[in-house]
Amino acid sequence: MLLLDHGGAGPSCLSFSPDSRMLAVCDGSRVSVWNHLTGDLLHQPRVRHTVSCLVFTTPRNLVLAGGAISRWTPSRAATPWWSWPMGLTVAAVCASPSGRNLYVAANRHRDDCGMVVRSSSSGSVSRQLFLRGTAVFDATVHAPTNRVAVAASGMLLQWNAMAPKDSLRSWTQRIPADQPSRSSIPSIARLVGDGGGEILGVEREFRSVVYSPDGRLLAAAAGESVEVWDAHDARRFETLAHHDAEVRAVAWSPDGRWLASGGDDETVVLHDVARRRIVARYNWGVGRVRAIAFAPDGMTVAAACDQSVAVWDVEEPSSC
Amino acid sequence: MIVLFADQNAFQLALTSAAIPAVVSGARARGVIDDGRVFIEFDARLPKDAKSALASLGAKSIARQAAPELHPLLCWHQLLPMRVDREPPTPTDGVVILFEVSAAERLVELCGEMLRLGADRLATAALAADDTHQPTRFLLRAVDPPYYTLLRTEAVGGDAQRPIAYVQQRPRVWVERGFTHPLIHVIEPPAGRMLLLRAPGDWRLVGEPVFRDVYADIEVRLPAEATPWRPAQLDARLQVTLRLTRGGDDAPATLWVMHDGAEQQVERLVEHADSALVDRLAFAVGTRGRRRVVVLRARPSQHPPPVLVVRGTAMRSYLKLPNLFVPCGFRVEPPLRRDVIARTLSSDAERITWLVPREDGEAAFVPESLPDIAFRPLSDWVDYVIDQEQVVLDEWVQSTRFDFAPFVSHQQVERAPTTAAPAEVANPNDPPATDGRVAQDSPSPEAAPQPADIVPESPPPRSRKRRELVTRLQAIEQQYLELDAPLDDKRRAAMWRDMARLNTMLEVARDATICWSNLLWEHPSAADNISSAWLASERRAASTETISRRQLEQMNSGHVAPEDAVHLAATLVEAAHNEAAHNEAAHNEAAHNEAADGWGDRVHLAAAVLQRHEAMLPVRVVWLAWQAVTILSGGDVLTLARTRDRLLERLHQGGLELDIDMPSFLRTNLSQGDRGRSVRGEFVHLRRMVHRWIESGAATAASMSAINTTPTRHYADLMLAYGLAVLGESAACQQLVAQVEREFHAMKTPRFDQVHRWLVAAFDERIRSVLAGVATTTPFSQQLLATLDGMSRETRYKIDRLRLHSFILEPHQRIDPYRRWDGRYDDLVRRQLADLYEPCDREQLQQQLNPLLQQAVEAKSPGANESWVLATALELAPRLGEKYTREILPQAMSLLDRLADLDQRARILEKGMLAAAHFDLPEVGRELSARIVQTFRAHQEDASDNTVRSLLGPALRGLRKLGLRDELNGIMNHIARMLRSASPAGGAPSGRLAEDDLPTQDRRLARLSMLLHLAASWLYFGQHTSARQALDEVRDALFQTGWEKARAARLARAYIEALAEAPIEESLVRIRDFLQRAPAPIDTYTTSSHYARLQLDVIDAVVRTLAGDSAAIDPAIRRWLDEDELLVRRRIHRDTRAALAAAGMT
After folding, report:
1. pTM
2. ipTM rounded to 2 decimals
3. Which end of chain A has fewer CB atoms < 10 Å from its terminal CB, N or C?
């Protein structure tokens, strides 16, 4: 168990390196890279733009996104990689496990948002999706099935990142500019396999979203609950209501066994979704939980809280 | 406007129901409560709906003249009287208390008192009257003030000027401690102001004061000018001569120094002692000039040191220093710190030092020493040869090795002869015939064997007669072994009788005691002759013939030899038997009085002696003696019940002990070889393999190359050192510990930080306990535990995590490493349950548990909480007592009917089985075993390996202890069928999954875990072929790649633990194979900064398997001990229940 003092404003996003040896944390203005096993602060890359989210694409390659997108490696300073038009702010960034594709979700003027899929090597944009009248909070990708899920204000949707561009465009055009209601879902929902995408949930603030490692389930933070969806047939599988305040972050363990959720009640709850029970509850006393991530080897989990980053060991229920 | 409310309830309702707008009720007003009626006058205009709401509450407007005298109020709420707060906050964990005093002098006095009592987080402020600006009241804000000071504020009828203590119950609302306001949650003072509420209705609104640190306002003056002294040196260091004085603890002797006649004594000892005793001893010979000394030393063992009756000085380890010994009953004066003693008297760790009192008095002593390496196992120097020529075996030892000078005993001359009169022992001494019947020929006096401490001038019997007795004894022992009947079969009783008599005649006192107690145990009704024969037998070995009050007082205050303790027990049993016989006869009143008077005033003293020394006695002897005490004390059944609890705790901790409770012929015949000896030589080689295995883990994980394996290797070494200590290799163990400590210290701060320091000290303490023969099941020393309190939670976590996983560090206690974090638990109940593990007495524990059980039952959704509470209660059953456990077991059974969650069921079943085994409740064991089968049937597919471990581990142990072999077989057969049905081949039970099954690692792990439990069970019952197949399959699975690391470590640990039941040679082969071929899991837990936890989990299992408490015992002996323990427990429970029933206390 470690508490990492990030300093500054409360950290908002964190990412483990694929070899589970480093943990990167950002809070909008500052980025820290830690050896979370020893508690040593390894690097504090200097970045010229705001950094609201970050992700490791390879063990030593960190993508920093906010007002723009930069790349950083331990041996080199952060270098600008991708410029954005003014007024566009990255809300979420994720990478395919191979690091080949980068999925970036961004907001513009609070009422329009979009998401693009960009090749890390060539820099070309292969797909893009625009949504009107909403703001995106989080996005996640399941690379083997090319599904991308977006948590937005009043809407939770998933789309096929390999769908034909035309069908994707026509699908997004059918989503009303004002946020869709429950009654409008049937008219705009389409199977992902047929191209385009589908709307799963509406009329709630979806703050965080993540696919289970096998891609079968999709967990989303919705108000004070966590909704678990069957990603194949767009059916709500379970609603987990174990928090006393808004849930801000969700994360699956790499083996898909446990789902962690955390939020404004300063608590992280570890769920055994298959058995429909709580495995453990943690309150580290360091403020609200903003983000959660499991280490890729599944041995540790980290939570970005208001005052610190808590890193602890994931153990069997009987021993934790 | 004046409004009249009929009573306070209506008034309070008006305030809480929002009938009165907050603006109105929060404004200043005038009011009074008169004869229960509430009058309130206010200036604001009430809205229409408020008026109608007031009317509905029965309030009415009245004229000014109709109201009594009204008092000014800050707001309407002030009119409600304050209530007593029954649970005011106590000054712990950062509670802030505000004290108000009326004068500056009082403030100084209060500050001084608090500072004196250790509270220094103080801040002061002054309150001035609005018109004068002169401070009229003073405030002192204290964090966690002394309880004494708080109590003074509550003094009734005392000083009117006493300080008033306030507690903040709302932001900026301070309420007199011990009171609260019924509407405290809505009271909100204006910004920048603070409200002070005193009972019954004194409200004061003051400006929010600025608090200053107390030292900022205190000017300290010296009473006189300081006198500066110049430092100087003493003329010379103070010389203190150490002395040896009587006192100290009554630790048993572990070193015997013989100056005179030592060789003959050792010769006598090895001639008469059984080989197990010889194995427990090391010896060394020293010379100085023409003088020679022989030193015997008890080799380290988990069991208490042996007791030797030799002429010489019996020594005990001093201050637990492994290389310093003082005579028993002595201590060094003045008392010095351990390290000072070590530095002064035994600075050379490689020499064994003992202090010999000088005969010229003055408490002087001479330190004598020998190198540690001079001590060799005594067994290595003894050759047992066949007495083919029917002559005395004078050449029992190689003369070149054992060339001692003759000696003369002085002590023997001083001691009175203790041989019992022939008439008294005639009966027990009647030797039995070889066919088991009592023989007619009694030994002639010249043939009688001599005790070990008799001078060499009267040699022990080596005559034909003695050999005949030995032959007869061996024949009966053989009959006993060959008899295919339960241990409590009546035919065995005759054999115990014969063996007891023969051992008495042969003066094998220890075996004689065990035989007599077994005989009495099985046939208490025929105890008349047996108890007197036993007493006669024990008299021969004891130092005195009778036990007087004076002797009892001496025994109560000093060291007692086991022979004397047994003698006391036998005396009590005989006296109780006489008492019972007299009571039954009831016709010889005089004799009855005589018997009762004989023990009446001494029985409590005897009980005290017995309780103090009962650990050195066989369990049966202890129980028989306490039963006797109960009879002699006139039926004190509560004492008997307490004895039952102590003995059950002793059996729970370590079961029957090989050295104390088992006769030597059973040990010798059941043992298939010396497990310890096989392992001892292996440990050095094993250490190299362990190191290579640890290094291989780091090497195979390319990206982990930065991992420092050094600390992990050191901890593995400490674990192996523990194993060496258990196996009695003290020199090698100490060498290894010293080497590890050197290497740790070489790391230097900050790398050798608090975590490493504490863990090294903890391992060291455990190892020292083993070397000193003290059980390692006890908690760590207070000193060591106290150092944990000062550590940060993160540091402590790393320590507690290893404590949780290492059975060497914590054999019984399960540490929750997150216990220090608030919010770790789902709710208050879980936190309260965690607190129950803190030490407290039985009644306190029951009082804490009762409300939790009640709440859990009454909760709307009882399942989870009830299961937690019941599981905790069952886990704490040994501390809660049998009666309480019997009360909660039906509740647990009822809950099992309702519980669907597998893990919760498993938890209840696991703890229930342990409780049933502890209190010998076979009917509960049967019911639980049926439910275990049910659970496996219902959850065949989703049981995790942890669940399997919870269900099968305790089931194996519990059902064995309860003697429920059929139920145990039933469970294991069901598991075998389950595994067989899941096996693709459909043949032997297998952990493989069928092709169409989902091959998740968790399910595979669960099945392999079942298979390992099955294999352990097969090994226990001697079905080695089936067990080997199962073990092979798990081994092959272990060597496969692709296991997730934590799961691989769990499987490896379970595999190695299962090997504890296998023959030692097979265990060794498999462990070597494992270390060579299995990958070492490297983890990235937050503890990996200090150690690789998964690797240490496996090493811990290896050490426990090869050198654990049970590993040193041969499986056949363990089976015998298990069965015998069952008989003992049953009898203890049966007797206690009968005694309680007779006393009308059931």
Report:
1. 0.61
2. 0.86
3. C
